[in-house]
Amino acid sequence: MGRETKSDYARHYKDYQGTPEQIAKRSQRNKARRLMEKEVGSAAIRGKDVDHKKMIKDGGGNGRANLRVTSPGKNRGWKKS
């Protein structure tokens, strides 16, 4: 069904998004976006995703060689680009 009320979102954040592991992952994704924004400019990445060529969970990092700007559909995989 999905989350319906504000308390459901608050519980989800507390139980999942608020964990130290998820906070660290989100921080790493945000850092990758800031690095690309500095290099190519904010207009170039507006409405797009910063993709890790080799996923973080597979040992990839935030090095420039591992980052690229892609459409959200291509990066998220479950949508067609």
How would the blueprint of this fold be written?
Layout lengths: L5 H12 L2 H21 L1 H4 L3 E4 L14 E4 L1 H5 L5
Antiparallel strand pairs: 1-2
Please tell me about this protein's structure.
The chain is mainly alpha-helical and 81 residues long. The protein is built from 4 helices and 2 strands, in the order H-H-H-E-E-H. It has a two-stranded antiparallel ribbon with strand order 1-2. The longest helix is centred in the middle third of the chain and has 21 residues. It is globular, with a radius of gyration of 15 Å.
Q: What is the terminal separation in angstroms?
A: 26 Å
Please work out how many helical segments DSSP would assign: 4
What is the strand tally? 2
Mean pLDDT across every amino acid position: 86
Main sheet properties: 2 strands, antiparallel
Task: Specify the overall morphology.
Answer: globular
Question: Compute the gyration radius: what is it?
Answer: 15 Å
Q: What portion of residues is helical?
A: 40-55%
Number of domains: 1
* Order of strands in the sheet with most strands: 1-2
